[in-house]
Write a structure and sequence with these properties.
heterodimer, A: about 375 residues, mainly alpha, two-stranded antiparallel ribbon, two-stranded antiparallel sheet, globular, B: about 250 residues, alpha/beta, six-stranded mixed β-sheet, four-stranded antiparallel β-sheet, about 25% strand, binds adenosine-5'-diphosphate, binds magnesium ion
Chain lengths: ~375, ~250
């Protein structure tokens, strides 16, 4: 966890995003330097995944909470953004209803459900992107940590949480578009989503959000709060006997992590153009954990690296051999667990830090 | 059993703890004065660690009273509350925060605000640095301040943990088997350290090592099958036929 690798990561992410955006906008389509728009959106998507990975690393790597349901917070942030984007369509939907999104017209709904109100306002929607995952995490964490649920039990209930949400969002009468989810978006903050410049803007916004999340996470884990958190991770009951309340520390970082994941989801949706219940599928959350394991748990920068590398591998493999992906992911996880238990970053770090030999120091007289 | 009075720091009366019907503590009673150091000995499974669990809020007794200072009922409080009252504990198996440096271990243990909203913004103060320097000197870990606690030797970890106890500046220290696994020289130094600590703190030491207990030269309580078998000076208890029978009959 060092300052240099964090600074380097911020520079590469933000600098790289600006560079890609500039090459997309500033070069002609035929030029060898031209970056096609699909690459811009693809990289933007990876950066959103990296925000989710950071969120997972914050709780897993530093507080020892292995969440197998973090994609739920990502998806909820995504739905909040999706609701805003739906309302932006206005009368331009297939059914031309100025108020109701198409799927509601299709279901013969006469008016907008109460929880859809306000989402036409971008400020309100942005607040919801933060608040809904945050409040859900607060409730969940308060119940779980207060009753000292931890370890594998906690992992199982996080998985149950995302699975329950998956089933709920599949239902048409929930009012979130059921199986099809929310899609056919037109504009974000009045910028057309199909325009190159908008995509470039979203890429840069994702890069900045990722960099800010990384710096924030770094600040937290290196603060005294972070030191307590690490102590809780490794010796929870010991921290209690020194007077700390581990459940408070876990709750804080858990809520923050959920909000971070929500931001990732909100930036993801306009770039992929759709949010549907499959984002809640347990496999997504597990994939996020694998990103972190591959990059190096408890390193932050490793989470970013793992998310980008594994996602890029997935893009390539699902194009070349679509049916193989889940097996490859499983194999990767086994490989990392057995041969690279500290992840890529952990392995790199061990090599440059020669372990200080331990002199047999007798306490001095 | 005498009732607690002003000089009483810790008062256990008729405390019973059962695990699945097995009585780990059986109507245990014990009184400690302020400023006292008490050695608690007894064969394995006598209930010494369980007694500390009860005092620190880890285990709730089935019955009995546990009173700290002037009438605080410890059985109603949880671990952080009891720690905040001024009871610190060193575990049988040394548990320090391994990835942190010796310095940071002390920093986290220093008495102060434990709430997240404080620690999130906390900066090391000069006062904190001075206190940590003093602890490093007391525990003879000054040279190792930047060392990862996980890389310390067993004896050094025990000392670090005792130092972390001091950092909390508790009224009462509970020390569970501090010299297990130590060399003879380390054991002698630990006895000296505890006596030094006892000048300003009350201490309960659990130990097997008879030479160590003799070196402490304090009142001894012998536990057996969850109750007090004998109490008095080390010479008194080691001459007690009941004690001899328990130790030889093992
Ligand atoms: N959590 C527990 N569950 C069941 N039995 C326990 C538990 N803790 C302690 N015991 C039992 O209670 C008895 C006293 O244990 P302990 O207090 O650790 O003894 P000592 O520290 O004196 O060696 C032992 O027989 C032990 O097996
Ligand atoms: Mg014991």
């Amino acid at each position: 966890m060092n300052r240099v690798s964090v600074a380097l990561c911020v520079l590469i992410v933000v600098g790289g995003a600006f560079l890609l955006a500039a090459l997309n906008l500033g070069t002609a389509a035929g030029s060898p330097l031209h970056v096609p728009p699909y690459v811009v959106s693809l990289v933007g998507k990876y950066l959103c995944y990296a925000i989710l990975a950071l969120a997972v690393d914050l709780v897993w790597g530093f507080a020892g909470i292995l969440s197998l349901g973090h994609a739920a917070f990502f998806a909820i942030g995504g739905y909040a953004m999706g609701m805003y984007l739906m309302r932006q369509i206005g009368g331009r939907g297939v059914y031309g209803n100025a108020v109701l999104p198409d799927f509601m017209v299709f279901l013969n709904w006469k008016e907008l459900p109460w929880y859809w109100h306000g989402f036409e306002n971008p400020m309100f929607a942005s607040v919801m992107v933060l608040a809904v995952p945050g409040v859900l995490a607060l409730l969940f964490g308060w119940l779980a940590f207060r009753s000292r649920v931890s370890g594998v039990y906690l992992s199982i209930i996080t998985q149950a949480l995302t699975y329950a949400l998956l089933l709920a969002f599949f239902r048409n009468d929930m009012g979130f578009g059921g199986n099809n989810g929310l899609t056919d978006f037109k504009e974000i903050f009045s910028f057309p989503l199909q325009a190159d410049a908008t995509r470039d803007g979203l890429l840069v916004a994702s890069a900045i959000a990722l960099a800010a999340s990384l710096l924030l996470a770094y600040g937290i884990v290196t603060s005294r709060f972070g030191k307590v958190l690490i102590a809780v991770r490794d010796a929870e009951s010991r921290t209690r006997f020194i007077g700390y309340r581990p459940e408070q520390y876990k709750l804080w970082v858990w809520v923050l992590s959920a909000v971070m994941a929500g931001i990732g989801g909100a930036l993801y949706v306009p770039q992929v153009g759709i949010i549907n219940p499959s984002e809640f599928s347990p496999a997504n959350s597990i994939e996020a954990v694998i990103w972190v394991a591959v990059g190096g748990r408890g390193t932050l920068v490793g989470a970013v690296l793992g998310a980008v590398l594994v996602s890029a591998g997935k893009t390539w493999l699902t194009g070349a051999l679509p049916e193989v992906w889940l097996f490859a992911l499983g194999a990767l996880f086994i490989f990392v667990t057995l041969l690279l238990p500290t992840g890529i970053l952990g392995a790199l770090r061990r090599r440059d830090r020669a372990p200080a030999p331990l002199p047999a120091v007798e306490p001095a007289q | 059993m005498t009732r607690p009075h002003d000089d009483t720091l810790l008062y256990l009366d008729n405390v019973t703890v059962t695990f699945d019907g097995f009585r780990a503590l059986n109507a245990l009673s014990l009184v400690m004065e302020r400023g006292e150091m008490r050695a608690v000995i007894g064969p394995n499974g006598a209930g010494k660690t369980t007694m500390m669990d009860v005092i620190t809020g880890k285990t709730r007794p089935d019955q009995g009273e546990v009173i700290f200072g002037r009438g605080t009922d410890l059985t109603r409080l949880d671990e952080p509350d009891i720690a905040a009252l001024g009871i610190g504990r060193k575990f049988q198996k040394p548990t320090v925060f391994e990835p942190h440096t010796v310095w940071d271990n002390f920093l986290l243990a220093l008495s102060g605000d434990r709430r997240p909203r404080f620690t999130l913004w906390a900066r090391e103060t000069d006062e904190e640095r001075e206190r940590i320097e003093a602890l490093l000197a007391t525990t003879r870990l000054s040279e190792l301040r930047e060392r990862r606690a996980g890389d310390l030797s067993h004896g050094q970890k025990q000392w670090l943990e005792i130092g972390m106890l001091l950092a909390q500046d508790p009224l009462l220290l509970l020390v569970d088997e501090p010299v297990a696994g130590m060399t003879d020289a380390e054991t002698a130094q630990t006895a000296e350290l505890l006596r030094e600590i006892n000048r300003s703190h009350s201490v309960v030491v659990v130990e097997h090592d008879m030479d160590f207990v003799r070196a402490l030269d304090v009142k001894v309580t012998v536990l057996h099958e969850g109750s007090v078998l004998s109490e008095g000076s080390i010479d008194h208890v080691s001459a007690d036929p009941k004690v001899i029978e328990v130790y030889l009959g093992r």
